[in-house]
Amino acid sequence: FNFFFFSFSQYPFELGLVAAFVxxxxxxxxxxxxxxxxxxxxxxxxxxxxxxxxxxxxxxxxIDHLLLTSPFCPxxxxxxxxxxxxxxxxxxxxxxxxxxxxxILGAAAGAxxxxxxxxxxxxxxxxxKSFQPGFPLVTSAMVLMLARFFIGILVVxxxxxxxxxxVLGALGYWYKFPIRDLPARRRLExxxxxxxxxxxxxxFTATVIVPLLHKLLGLM
Length: 220
What we know:
GO terms for molecular function: sphingosine-1-phosphate phosphatase activity. By secondary structure, the chain is mainly α.
């Protein structure tokens, strides 16, 4: 995935290649450190990823078009990652990797649905207009960038806090455990839905709600 992402980046190929290699290496080492995978697992996963990259690269434009236009995209983007999270490899002891994977897939699912929705309603793109006329261009651009950043991060963090509290509260009521009970929150039937719903909401907010708020505040 990292190599696939950097193949579409605007950075020089060599820089993207190095960044993808470093990031992938760190992920592999973290999997070994947490005991989730063996060295053979990591090597096998890298080979599978390389094969998938070669097979899917020519069809990426088609896949991208389907994700933005197909009426089944929201259902597919939510159901498939959620099923994968529930069928994550099980260990005899707790490992944070399942929760981390659920967080990543949840955020990606929410963002994918957000991109699809933006495409359906032709959401306006960001422009480089000055935030305050009369200021130098660099100053105006910096003020605009900082305003977008802090408003966006505030809304994202607020979404995370609200959704996490609501989902954990509902699951705690359903499964009869206190919210602060850490072992209970690590159970499969609790960890997966609470993290998936929380971070899919974060992904959706970042791609839909934040741009709409920026437009409302005149920061587009």
